[in-house]
Amino acid sequence: MRxxxxxxxxxxxxxxxxxLALSSSLFIGASFIIKKKGLLMSVEKGGSSxxxxxxxxxxxxxxxxxxLTMIGGESANFIAYAYAPAILVTPLGAxxxxxxxxxxxxxxxxDMHICGIAGILLCxxxxxxxxxxxxxxxxxxxxxxxxxxxxQPVFRAYVCFVLSFTxxxxxxxxxxxxxxHVVVYVAICSMIGSLSVMALRGIGIAAKLTMRGxxxxxxxxxxxxxxxxxxxxxxxxxxxxxxxxxxxTTMVSSVYYVFFTVCTVTxxxxxxxxxxxxxxxxxxxxxxxxxxxxxxVHILSGTRDSAPGCRAGxxxxxxxxxxxxxxxxxxxxxxxxxxxxxxxxxxxxxxxASRRDWLESRH
Length: 363
What we know:
The protein has helices spanning 2-44, 61-83, 86-89, 94-107, 114-132, 143-150, 153-177, 182-211, 220-246, 249-271, 280-302, 310-318, 327-362. It is an all-alpha fold. The protein has one domain (2-326). The longest helix is centred in the first third of the chain and has 43 residues, at 2-44. The protein is globular, with a radius of gyration of 25 Å. It starts with a helix and ends with a helix.
């Protein structure tokens, strides 16, 4: 009887987590569009773009509206992690991709290919399958238990790897390839985001236990998690703004979903061991659901600029495509190349004239 009560309580917690995660996806999907609109308005008024390192968008009320919308969505997502495991909540972010694609079509005028509808349907199917075979949350009785999980040698090695690789991207890859390869900015957001999710779940568990009578919010472990999340979110927002300012909204949200999901599921497997005590069948269907979501997201992003028709969409998906650049950035690069060529020609002409003068002086 006790086992049945615990199973029902776990199922109810999962249901709450799923509802919160889906509502969070809608808010976050809308926030992508509103923030993008604010970034565009900032550039139109003569401000420096986020991709160029500018922060003029901070003076745009529309951008702050998008930020508040994202905070609302992330708050719902934060509460969802208190009720359901990260391996369930994070992949449900596919709904964010579908929502942002639909909103971008109506509010930003970005095209959505007919194959994009198939991508949205795949994301829906993957979400339903994932919810059906979701793992139950492992019981946690204190925030100290969460801290002990974070202090495992394997997870500490993962944290060191993430921080080292992120620093390499920030100081090595981002200055050279950030404006031409969307994965650079998105990888920074995703890897740092996986660490913030682990801490967010710890804060959520502390809040849930506090509401049940066991005060966990005043403990130093909880305070450390809060500070850690603040630093991670600041980094994520900076590079997410750079990505949104440089690339197509659907592309950013799609690639971000895949990277963020993979990083977060990996971190959750290492720290919380969400897949322990599960049947092979449940694990199989969770993997299938994740792959279906990734396929749906790939179709949404891969057909965004292809010609109308399913055949053209399939050709776009199967062909290797170059990363999208902003027109003004491409124009600036072309101008730089032209200036460099002219300078080289002038140097050659000057060098030729100097050599002729030297030969004449010899004679």
